[in-house]
């Protein structure tokens, strides 16, 4: 610390300051500056920091006479500016992508748009009936068969056909797949979410199915599965040959011998989402 005065004097001279000028910056007397420089007095730590700031130097340079490398200081400042700039740019990009639905659509697809206030949701029941023949001798062969398909990319296919606990009974599960971009999406399905607030919803069924075997119309086919909306669609299904529909009389004549049935689905619903022009960044 004995050389602190020498370092103060050298730095003051290098800055072109007189003792009076440095004293004015520090709000002390010229005699105090002279006492430091001649070693008659030593400034305390707080005063050393003020002296370093007045001389535009590091405290270590005032105490030990060793300056921090000027190049290192410039590099640190440069990288600090670059880092701050990149953070601002990334934040702006994130806000833009979020507001225009890119992030939500990428992560959650149709479900995000269905529940987001920045998207308008419309529903339309399709008036047509759609039929499909099922092979009961090779259940796996039915997987992937299309019940519905259109030019927009919406399609409904058989996800699985499996036996039930009832003799001769089956579960038929359809998979509905839609299309989705940040500007909006579409899905045609036999069920849909009916939301009553931002987080709550119920499942609504719109489709019904009838089954014919050998030209005979079988009893009604009941729903066996409804699933909520996912990123790319949902699933719905029916019982084929529901056991409880026949009571004690047994199935219609010839059912056990049937190798194929035809199912006809009506009441499919088209769900359309469309991004609104005015977006809220807080939704």
Structural notes for this entry:
The structure is a single chain. With 283 residues, the chain is α+β, with helices and mostly antiparallel strands. It contains 7 helices and 15 strands. The strands form 4 sheets. Strands 3-4-5-13-12 form a 5-stranded antiparallel sheet, with no helix packed on it. The chain has a 4-stranded antiparallel sheet with strand order 1-15-7-6, with helices on one face. Helix 2 crosses helix 3. It is rod-shaped. Mean pLDDT is 85; it is low at 243-257.
Using only C-alpha atoms, the radius of gyration works out to 39 Å
What general outline do the C-alpha atoms trace?
rod-shaped
Low-confidence stretches: 243-257
Count every helix, treating DSSP H or I runs of 4 or more residues as helices: 7
N-to-C SSE series? HHHHHHHEEEEEEEEEEEEEEE
- Percent of residues in beta strands: 25-35%
The protein's oligomeric status is single chain
Summarize the structure.
This protein has 283 residues and is of the alpha+beta class. It contains seven helices and 15 strands.
């Amino acid at each position: 610390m004995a050389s602190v005065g020498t370092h103060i004097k050298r730095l003051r001279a290098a800055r072109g300051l007189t003792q009076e000028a440095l004293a004015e910056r520090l709000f002390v007397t010229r005699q105090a500056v002279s006492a430091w420089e001649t070693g008659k007095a030593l400034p305390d730590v707080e005063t050393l920091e003020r002296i370093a700031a007045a001389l535009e130097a590091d405290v270590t340079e005032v105490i030990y006479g060793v300056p921090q490398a000027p190049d290192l200081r410039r590099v640190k400042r440069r990288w600090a500016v670059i880092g701050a700039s990149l953070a601002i740019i990334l934040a702006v990009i994130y806000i833009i992508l979020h507001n225009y639905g890119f992030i939500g659509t990428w992560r959650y697809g149709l479900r995000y748009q269905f529940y987001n206030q920045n998207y308008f949701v419309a529903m339309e029941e399709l008036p047509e009936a759609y039929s499909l023949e099922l092979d009961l001798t090779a259940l796996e062969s039915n997987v992937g068969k299309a019940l519905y398909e259109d030019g927009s990319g919406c399609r409904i296919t058989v996800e699985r056909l499996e036996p039930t606990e009832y003799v001769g009974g089956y579960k038929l599960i359809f998979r509905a797949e839609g299309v989705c971009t940040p500007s909006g999406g579409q899905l045609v399905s036999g069920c849909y979410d009916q939301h009553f607030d931002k987080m709550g919803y119920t499942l609504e069924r719109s489709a019904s199915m009838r089954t014919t075997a050998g030209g005979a119309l079988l009893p009604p086919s009941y729903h066996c599965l409804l699933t909520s909306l996912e990123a790319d669609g949902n699933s719905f299904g029916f019982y084929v040959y529901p056991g409880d529909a026949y009571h004690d009389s047994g199935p219609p004549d010839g059912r056990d011998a049937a190798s194929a049935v035809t199912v006809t689905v009506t009441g499919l619903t088209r769900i359309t989402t469309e991004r609104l022009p005015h977006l809220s960044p807080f939704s």
